[in-house]
Amino acid sequence: MNKESIAKQLDHAATSAEAVEQISLTQQFTEDEAYEIQAQSMEERYTRDDHFVGLKLGFTSFAKMEQMGVHDMIWGRLTKNMWIENGGEVSLSNFIHPRAEPEIAFKLKKDLDREISLEEIPEFIDSCCTAIEIIDSRYKNFKFSLEDVIADNCSSTGFILGDWKPLPASLNDLQMSLSFDGEVVESDSSNAILDNPYLSVCNASRLAAKYGQLFPKGSVLLAGAATPAVFIKPNSVVSAEVETLGGVSVKVV
Ligand code: OOG
Ligand code: MG
After folding, report:
1. What's the 223 CA to ligand 2 centre distance in angstroms?
2. Which tens digit of pLDDT belongs to each residue from 122-131?
3. What tens digit of pLDDT does each residue of 45-72 get?
4. What's the longest Cα–Cα distance across the chain?
5. Helices then strands (H, E): number in the chain?
């Protein structure tokens, strides 16, 4: 398979907001090859005044795995141009079929270059906050295999961060919700994220080290959605709330 041409095709689908056929319908490829395609498609973005600002994990909750019919955790890259200001606006015309998810984000206190344990988190993580992730699969009908979605940078499209808060002793048993125009559309406990959202940090450190992705001081980690993702609509306000961490919102136009 020609990884470079697939990377370019996926990059073009993202910039033009035009969906493409799933790669796995016509070509067989492995998870490692999918991560190579992802890395190459990110190189395309980096040539356009964009740069790496963090990582995201996907499918860290059963709700998400079940919704998308996949069975394993995945990771992708976040870039500066995906970052939308809290309370800011986002235009639907940039996207194919975007969905929103309620998440928890972390900020790195120092470079992470190896797998760390739960006990080491306070040494490496500075703070956390409530976040919204906007995902937009570049594949038709939002349908993909695990390898397809990895190659497509795990549907990463946008993210909004709330105010950074000091790390609490525990991130368990916190109510998390996603609302449209003030009405809750999805909610669950933070336990939905790997039974403990702090485990997302350990898993991200493991995966970044395994794939040789630098994860520098100041960068962000999205821990993965606690609930299924919901399609967003024009002229609405999307907000997320995590008990004790506060809220975050974005206006969709
Ligand atoms: C892949 C991205 C999944 C999450 O938080 O689980 C994800 C997708 O569902 O398109 O971001
Ligand atoms: Mg997500």
Report:
1. 7
2. 999 999 999 9
3. 999 999 999 999 999 998 988 898 888 8
4. 48
5. 6, 14
Which of 22, 55, 59 to mutate to test ligand 1, by most ligand atoms within 8 A of the CB atom?
59
For residue 135, is pLDDT > 90? yes
pLDDT of 170 > 90? The answer is yes
DSSP string, 57-125: EE--SHHHHHHHT--S-EEEEEEGGGEE-TT-EE-GGG-SS-EEEEEEEEEESS-B-S---GGGHHHHE
Q: If you count them, how many residues does the chain have?
A: 253
pTM of the model: 0.97
Whether the Cβ atoms of residue 138 and residue 96 lie closer than 8 Å to each other:
yes
Residue 1 pLDDT > 90: no
Joined together, the tokens standing for residue 180 give 């449209």
Domains and CATH numbers, the chain: 3-252 (3.90.850.10)
**What letter does residue 246 receive in the DSSP assignment?**
E
Residue 233 neighbours by CB distance under 10 Å:
12
